[in-house]
Every structure is written in structure tokens, then in C-alpha cells.
Write a structure and sequence with these properties.
Layout: H1 2-13, H2 17-39, H3 47-58, H4 63-74, E1 83-90, E2 96-103, H5 106-119, E3 123-124, E4 134-143, H6 151-160, E5 165-167, E6 173-178, H7 183-192, E7 199-206, E8 210-211, H8 215-230, E9 234-239, E10 241-242, H9 245-251
Parallel strand pairs: 8-10
Antiparallel strand pairs: 1-2, 1-3, 2-9, 4-6, 4-7, 5-6
């Protein structure tokens, strides 16, 4: 799981301010749309929608935007129907990659994603080719930039509430891993104990990671991941690459 934690740090450090902010808002709006269509517009009865709203707050997305997205979905706007699709493939060094998309045009994204993989030292694979290497888990992060969090206390609290693991190898945050069904209970327990939640999400965590230590392979991997992240219909990109932070900073991609 440490590889996932390093990846999380990498991802957060690679943001490109304004463009990233606009894309995040679009992603969240799509997630809200699907959540409302699945389980209704009431956050108290729709856990997926509550996670979307928390993500929106963490991204400083205006609540007006959130409410508009909810109302649009609840109003069953004609002509809008997002489909959830997962693409799987490989990158340089043999790393496994999973892409989650929300799109209204399956044919277009299939062609586009294949093109991105092929032009950036990757290969798009068949359904199931790498998904077995990942586990769907709940993930919470508690900020600890000041180093004031009592990790032992938080660990006991989280494990008692049903968490599977607590990781503190990132100096800026404590990461809590749960089964998907236990995410809400653990989140509530952590919040009730007075700890702020920075991130609460359902994610894919690699069972094992592939260490990348040479500059050429790292450059190819990061370039492909960046191209995928930048694609409009991409919601999440998961992978099992473990690239040392100092190498990433050296490359400055």
C-alpha cells in the first residue's frame, strides 16, 4: 500500500493550477450527476453523493456549482446520459494502469484512449487484463502538515471503527484504508473524534507495485499518466508504478 501512498503524494504535487482546477470541477459535476441518477438527490440517503459533495468542498468548488449539478441530474435533463467505463492497459516498464471514465460518447473515448496509450509507450489491453492486480478500497486522509496528529491514537480509533490499515509514511497526512462498505462508518468515527478529513473516496489500490528507478522509463510512465489525466472524460487513473519522489522532482515533467 505504500506505493499507493507515494502515488497519492505524486499526484497532488503535479497539479497545474487553473487547468487542473477547471478539470476537477468538471469531474466532480459528472460524478454528482451519476450519483444522483443512481440514488437520488438527497445527500442524507445517498452516500456516493455525500462523498462527491465532500470532494467538491475539498477542491473549493462553489456550492452553487454543486447545487446546480444536483438539480440538473434530478431534473433528468434530456440528452445527457453519462456512462461509466473502465479501460485497462500497460505502460513503460510493464506497469499496470486502470482508467475510469464518465462519458456520453463511448466510441469516441475508445479511439482516443487507445491513441493515447499507443503514442506514449503504452498498450491498451482487454477488459480484466490488469484489474486483478488492484483492490477496490475506501480511503481517508487526515492532514498532518504540522505533525500534531497522535498517529497511535488515530490508528486505534480507526481500527476499532473497522479500518484495515493506517499509514503514516507521508509526513503531510495520515492515510486510512478501509473496505468499501466500512468507509462511511470509519469516516464518521474519525470526524466525531475531532480529526479533520481531507479526502474520503472509493479508490483502487495496487496489490503490488513496480519500482521504476531509471530516468528514461520514469519519463515515459509519467508522460503517459499525464496525458491520460488531461483527457476530458477521465475521472481517475490508477497504476502500480513506484517512482522515487526525488527522481520525479529531478525530471520536473
Amino acid at each position: 500500500m505504500s506505493g499507493h501512498n507515494k502515488w497519492s503524494t505524486i499526484k497532488h504535487k503535479k497539479g497545474k493550477a487553473d487547468a487542473a482546477r477547471a478539470k476537477v470541477f468538471t469531474q466532480i459535476s459528472k460524478e454528482i450527476f451519476v450519483a444522483v441518477r443512481q440514488s437520488g438527490p438527497d445527500p442524507t440517503a445517498n452516500f456516493r453523493l455525500r462523498l462527491c459533495i465532500q470532494k467538491a468542498k475539498a477542491a473549493n468548488m462553489p456550492m452553487d456549482n454543486v447545487n446546480r449539478a444536483i438539480q440538473k441530474a434530478a431534473g433528468n435533463q434530456e440528452g445527457v446520459a453519462y456512462e461509466e467505463i473502465v479501460y485497462e492497459g500497460y505502460g513503460a516498464g510493464g506497469i499496470a494502469i486502470m482508467c475510469e471514465l464518465l462519458t456520453d460518447n463511448r466510441n469516441r473515448v475508445a479511439s482516443d484512449i487507445r491513441y493515447i496509450f499507443s503514442r506514449n509507450n503504452g498498450n491498451l489491453g482487454e477488459t480484466g487484463c490488469v484489474s486483478y492486480m488492484f483492490e477496490r478500497k475506501g480511503r481517508l486522509t487526515v492532514p498532518d502538515e504540522e505533525g500534531t496528529v497522535d498517529v497511535d491514537e488515530l490508528m486505534l480509533l480507526a481500527l476499532d471503527a473497522g479500518a484495515e490499515d493506517v499509514l503514516a509514511d507521508n509526513p503531510e497526512q495520515v492515510e486510512i484504508i478501509t473496505a468499501t462498505d466500512d468507509l462511511e462508518a470509519v469516516k464518521n468515527a474519525v470526524e466525531e473524534a475531532g480529526y479533520p478529513i481531507e479526502t474520503a473516496e472509493i479508490t483502487m489500490i495496487p496489490a503490488n507495485t513496480v519500482e521504476i528507478t531509471d530516468e528514461e522509463t520514469a519519463t515515459k510512465v509519467l508522460t503517459l499518466l499525464d496525458k491520460l489525466e488531461d483527457y476530458d472524460d477521465i475521472q481517475n487513473v490508477y497504476h502500480n508504478a513506484d517512482i522515487p519522489e526525488e527522481l520525479i522532482e529531478k525530471l520536473d515533467i
